[in-house]
Structures are given as structure tokens and as C-alpha cells.
Amino acid sequence: MRYNFCTLFDSNYFSRGLSLYNSLNNLNIDFHLYVFAFDDDCYSKLRNKNLINLTVISLSEFEDVELLNIKNTRTKAEYCWTSTPSTILYCLKKFNLESCTYLDADLFFYNTPAAIYEEIGPASIALSPHNYTPIYDQIKTSGIYCVQFVYFKNDTEGILALNWWRDRCIEWCFARLESGKFGDQKYLDDWPMRFNNVHIIKNLGAGVAPWNIQKYSFINNSQFIENGDNNPKVNDLIFYHFHYLKFQKIDNFIMVSPSKFKLNQFVEQQLYMPYIYNLITNEQDMTIHTSHKIVFNKNTIFRNIINWLRLKFKKLSLFRLINRLIYKSSR
Questions:
Q1: pLDDT of 93-110, one tens digit each?
Q2: Per-residue pLDDT, 261
Q3: Domain range for residue 290?
Q4: Quick one: pLDDT band at residue 331, thresholds 50, 70, 90?
Q5: pTM, two decimal places
Q6: What is the tally of structural domains in the chain?
Q7: Main-chain phi, psi angles of 200, to 5 degrees
Q8: Domain ends where: 208, 225, 254?
Q9: Both 157 and 270 in a single domain?
Q10: Which of 242, 130, 119 is nearest to 189 (CA)?
Q11: What are phi and psi of 116, to 5 degrees?
Q12: Cβ(142)–Cβ(185) under 8 Å?
């Protein structure tokens, strides 16, 4: 089976998008990734790499009149969300695909997605639930399902849902909760009732993320069990969603702000650290040496203030010394 995927990102997310591609390429599966490059720099970088199993699509090829008419009314992030259903629809029609799955650019695959597609079977549409840990339940604001992995078959029901979703996103797609809507995501909430042949993905390995990883105990970096299960089943981690990950290189430290959600040390060391190194490897303007230490930022607000002050007063040697001592103390 060939897996057809599409994603979108700009040069700011280039390293994440390339890591997504590399993770798929390392699985030794038959796949093709269609990338919508949301700025010229991203497009040029991808074209110059001549990656196999990847087609890069520029904005000039992709954007139509309806998208261009509303582009200036959205922020960059909002316009990306607005464009999501249009990218899937473009791929199905332009390349005459049997099916296409949209992936967020900050996903990383650890195992083949074959089990997901076996579960989807003949369905026209497949959605992945957020599967929140109870203390992080954000269904009311962010929706039941996550746009991270959305599957559509090129059939009547799939195209009907895609056209409906595209029209709604062009009408309204903003980073705020309003009248039961939020971005492109909460539109999915009623799809099992609104459309036919919709499948809700049950595989726990499809969509492990910072908002649900507290439910699981990891055996290794690609397998886990569900906490509290009297007869625990070993689940393969198919993909992880590195949502809200921020990092920066400061002297000999890589400062990481993984998320606002609680992560244990195993997850930080076995999932986040390799991924961070992967991102830095993909950054053409960053280098990393064995002397660099990855430090997880436990107090994001405080660290951000320190980072801002450091940049503002970087010429003050005393402040640089104090700043360095602060970071070294966190090792």
C-alpha cells in the first residue's frame, strides 16, 4: 500500500518538516509526501534537496482566488489553518490520489502507520481524537479531534466533507474561541453525525502528545503501556506530536521549552532530546557539538525573561557571567 501524505510549513518550521520527512523515510514504507511551502525560502530549500518521495508545491501553484481574498484577514498561523482542507483537496484532485492524509509538520514517526490504515479500512474519513489526560482536558476550547492526522478518501463522502470544511475555514478561521468554533479544528467535532463513513481512530499509538502522554508508561522509545490497566497491552508508538516545542542555542547550552504539560524524565531524555538533535541537524544556520548540553526549561516565564535580558544587555560582561551561572546551575 502506498501512503499519500501532505503537510504545510514555512521556513520557520523547515527543520520540523524535514524531520517529519526523515522519520517517514526511515520506516522503509511506500509513501509520498506532498509539502506546501508557505514561503519562498522554504520552497527553495526543499527544491535544492531533491528529496525522493517528496513533491514540493509553492504558494503560487496552490493559492486560488478564494484563499487570496481572505489571506490578509488572517495571521500567518490562522492562514495555515485556513489552508489545511484546501491542501488535501488540492492533492486529491491535482494528483488523482485514491486517498490522502494531512499531517502536522511537527509529528515524528517511530513505527509504520500500517495498523492505523488497517483500522481505517473502507472508511471515507478518519479522525484522531486528542485523547486528553483528564487534568488537561481542552475539548471545550480545542475540540474533540486533532487536525494532526486527518485521512480522506477520494470518494463522494470524502470530497463532500473536504469541500464543507474548506468553505467553513474560508468563512471563519481564527485563533480564538467564538460561537463554538476555534481555528480549523472544532469544525470536526460533529463529523461522525454530519457525514457518513467517518472512522474515529482507536489506536493509542496514533497521536501520543504532550496533553495525553501522562496516561502512559514507556517500555522504550517506541513502545508503551497504558497506566492503570490490569492487563496492560504493549502499544507501538506510531507517531508523537511535538506540539509547542521551543528551543534556542545559548553558549554551550540548548535551552528547551517542551510544552506547558508535565513530562517525565524518560520522555524528555528518550523522545525530546533525540528530536531536538534532529532539528538542529536540519537547521542550516545552526551547529551543535558534543560539548553542548540540552537543558529542559522548567520555568518558562523566568527563562524567557532571562533570555530577553541577555539579548538586550549582551555586551555587559557581568550580566553574561551571571546568566551563565544560572544556566549551569540547572544542569
A1: 999 999 999 999 999 999
A2: 87
A3: 246-329
A4: very low
A5: 0.87
A6: 2
A7: -100, 120
A8: 208
A9: no
A10: 130
A11: -65, -45
A12: yes
